[in-house]
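We modelled the chain as a single entity of 125 amino acids. Its sequence is:
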Amino acid sequence: IMTLQFIEDIEKTFDDFNKVLKPGGLLIFAVHNQAHVKECLHEKKLFEDFDSIEKPKSGYIRLGEQKIPIYIRTAQNYKNILEKRGFQQILEEYPPFTEEFLKQYPIEEPTHEPRFLILGYRKKQ
């Protein structure tokens, strides 16, 4: 569910999904929200070495001592790629941080923007 942002050649991956999904099949995934990444970059938290702070596209996410390459795409980027492959968008959600979540799981990164973007697509008949 949270792997697509770690794939540089995402178009090939979606070509592969297109080959294996039957008409009417669903593709649902979550990725990092570009607005959250931008917020983190401004506060120097979690993400680093991005090509742009205002429209971050590629850089690194720091997990402990590991720096992992990450590719941030917008909902529109995914829509453009998937519609060319015969998919119809059925879901676009940005679930916010809730007070209950933040009380139970305090985090050091900024929380004004939703961390995730959840997208769903159906392969056309």
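As a brief sanity check on the tokenised model: The radius of gyration is 16 Å. The CA atoms of residues 32 and 116 lie 5 Å apart.
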